[in-house]
């Protein structure tokens, strides 16, 4: 092990014998009491020294025998250490990709705070590189989501949409103005390639045979994606998704996340975990129970009758896309975002994000009744103490 204090954590002394790593309550760790020799030893943990050299440094500093190993173990247990050699073969493969490492260094820093064990951040990034995501819908929201997922290191981002890019589609981070008039699938595939963090063979950004590919329906027997992100240009499909469109994902157990903007309201979620959380069918049945006119309204909305022009504020669209992409990445990283079984909504002009928990409907055949993901809470935390001296 070549231990290194995680550079993503800001270090500050609370007093002469207590040091705090990290600023925010979610990350801050307090170490103390620490004498001058121990503090000097911690400063040596920069990833350049292995155990024998660190033991010698500890001896020179006057620390008792065995103290170096004890300190390293305690700091690692507190989630404060990275190891420049840890993570296994997959992590080593990522380390060798210099352009990738430089582009995603901030992302690695963020992953290191969520993956407390040494080498965990690189393992998570390697897993992202092996992930496959489909983004369905390439309007203002969907295009940005696809771009962010590709830029964050997801190895295979497939984009699916019909028609051509319209003058109102381009937004920063999404479709560029020069894409207007091009087929959406073609323009989206190019956007994904250009957003990828490294150049593959031949100078093109992206990697893998499916990176950024616009695709039609999945052939029989094809491997399913790890996640489908549904970002319809018609916001009604995010607000009231059609259960028929998700039937194949439920049958194959494919997780899918909804996101969109409708009439100045941004929507993120739910992330549907088939068999565990409420699906589009559950949402439709629950609404029908509360509003007998709902089926009649849905028929008209889905037919396009009386459809007005789009109301998709640019700032809100980018905010929705960013939040949806972050939730998607958290899921791909093996965590459970707050959109699992729930929907987040924010309306202009206040933009007060509100969460609604969605309960599986007993009459829905999706099988989610009685299931459900383990509840995760991200409540306020105070800096916690760990004694290192």
Topology:
Elements: E1 3-5, E2 11-15, E3 18-21, E4 29-31, H1 36-43, H2 51-60, H3 67-77, E5 81-83, H4 88-95, H5 98-103, H6 105-114, H7 120-129, E6 132-136, H8 140-151, E7 156-160, H9 184-195, E8 227-230, H10 236-239, H11 247-252, E9 256-262, E10 265-272, H12 280-290, H13 294-303, H14 314-332, E11 342-347, E12 354-357, E13 384-386
Helix pairs in contact: 4-7, 6-7, 8-9, 8-14
Overview of this structure, please?
With 389 residues, the chain is α/β, with parallel strands linked by helices. The chain has three domains: 1-85, Outer Surface Protein A, domain 3, CATH 3.90.930.60; 86-129, no CATH class; 131-357, Rossmann fold. The protein is 35% helix and 15% strand. It has helices spanning 36-43, 51-60, 67-77, 88-95, 98-103, 105-114, 120-129, 140-151, 184-195, 236-239, 247-252, 280-290, 294-303, 314-332, and strands at 3-5, 11-15, 18-21, 29-31, 81-83, 132-136, 156-160, 227-230, 256-262, 265-272, 342-347, 354-357, 384-386. The longest helix is centred in the last third of the chain and has 19 residues, at 314-332. The radius of gyration is 24 Å and the shape is elongated. The two termini are 22 Å apart. The model is unreliable at 206-211, 213-221 and 375-384 (pLDDT under 50).
């Amino acid at each position: 092990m070549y231990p290194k204090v995680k550079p993503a954590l800001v270090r500050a002394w609370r007093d002469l014998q207590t040091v705090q790593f990290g600023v925010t309550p979610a990350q801050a760790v307090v170490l103390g009491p620490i004498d001058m020799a121990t503090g000097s030893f911690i400063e040596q943990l920069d990833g350049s020294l292995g155990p024998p050299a660190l033991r010698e440094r500890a001896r020179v500093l006057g620390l008792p025998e065995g103290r170096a190993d004890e300190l390293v173990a305690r700091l690692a247990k507190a989630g404060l250490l990275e190891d420049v050699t840890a993570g296994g073969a997959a992590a080593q493969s990522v380390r060798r990709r210099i352009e990738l490492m430089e582009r995603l260094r901030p992302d690695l820093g963020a992953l290191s705070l969520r993956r407390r064990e040494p080498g965990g951040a690189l393992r998570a990034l390697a897993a992202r590189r092996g992930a496959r995501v489909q983004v369905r819908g390439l309007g203002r929201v969907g295009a940005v989501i696809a771009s962010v997922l590709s830029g964050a290191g997801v190895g295979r981002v497939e984009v699916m949409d019909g028609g051509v890019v319209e003058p109102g589609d381009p937004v920063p981070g999404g479709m560029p103005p020069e894409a207007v008039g091009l087929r959406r699938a073609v323009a989206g595939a190019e956007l994904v390639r250009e957003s990828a963090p490294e150049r593959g063979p031949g100078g093109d950004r992206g990697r893998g045979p499916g990176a950024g590919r616009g695709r039609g329906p999945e052939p029989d027997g094809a491997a399913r994606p790890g996640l489908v992100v549904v970002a319809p240009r018609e916001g009604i499909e995010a607000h009231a998704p059609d259960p028929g469109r998700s039937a194949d994902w439920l049958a194959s157990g494919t997780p899918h996340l909804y996101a969109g903007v409708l009439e100045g309201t941004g929507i993120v979620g739910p992330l549907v975990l088939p068999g565990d959380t409420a699906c589009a069918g559950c949402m439709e049945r629950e609404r029908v129970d509360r509003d007998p006119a709902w089926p009649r309204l849905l028929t008209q909305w889905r037919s396009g009758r009386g459809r007005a022009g789009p109301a998709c504020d640019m700032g809100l669209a980018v905010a929705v896309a960013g939040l949806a992409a972050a939730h998607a990445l958290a899921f791909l990283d093996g965590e459970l975002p707050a959109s699992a079984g729930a929907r987040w909504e924010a309306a202009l002009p206040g933009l007060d994000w509100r969460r609604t928990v969605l309960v599986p409907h007993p009459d829905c055949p999706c099988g989610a009744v009685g299931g459900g993901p383990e509840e995760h809470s991200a409540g306020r935390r105070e800096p916690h103490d760990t004694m290192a001296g």
